[in-house]
Amino acid sequence: MTVVLTITIAVFCFFYLLSNMFSIGFGAWSTFNISYENRKQPERQIREQRFDAGALGYGGGRVVEVRPFTGLFWKVSPVDTNTFDQTEWRQVDQETDVKFP
């Protein structure tokens, strides 16, 4: 009984992961534009990003505030550019290396 249950669960997990491989297994957020930099801390930025799904193209987009975290990681949080305090930020509008064809 235990062997049958183990094999059943393993087969289910295999097919579940196989069916979702392209939706959850691949892709990354790519920065297209650095819109704003913080006046006091220039490493804090507001960036426009798109989800790059590789050969499948680009998915949705988002606008996030990016802050360094321990020097190795970035803390990313969504931001609404219509309601944030623009006096703390300097507009940059710097394009990154990612371009549309």
Query: Portion of residues in helices?
Result: 10-25%
Q: Write down the overall geometry.
A: elongated
* Secondary-structure element series: HHEEEEE
Secondary structure: number of strands? 5
Helices, by number, come to 2
Instruction: Please state how the strands of the largest beta sheet are arranged side by side.
Output: 4-3-2-1-5
Average pLDDT, all residues: 85
Ends: how far apart? Answer: 57 Å
Q: Report the uncertain regions.
A: none
Radius of gyration: 20 Å
Strand content: 35-45%
Report the biggest beta sheet as strand number plus sense, adding barrel if it closes: 5 strands, antiparallel
Helix/sheet category: alpha+beta
What would your notes on this structure say?
With 101 residues, the chain is α+β, with helices and mostly antiparallel strands. It has a domain at 27-95. It has two helices and five strands, in the order ααβββββ. It has helices at residues 2-19, 21-24; strands at residues 28-38, 45-52, 58-69, 73-78, 89-95. The chain has a five-stranded antiparallel beta sheet with strand order 4-3-2-1-5, with no helix packed on it. A hairpin with a 6-residue loop joins β1 (28-38) and β2. The radius of gyration is 20 Å and the shape is elongated. The mean pLDDT is 85.
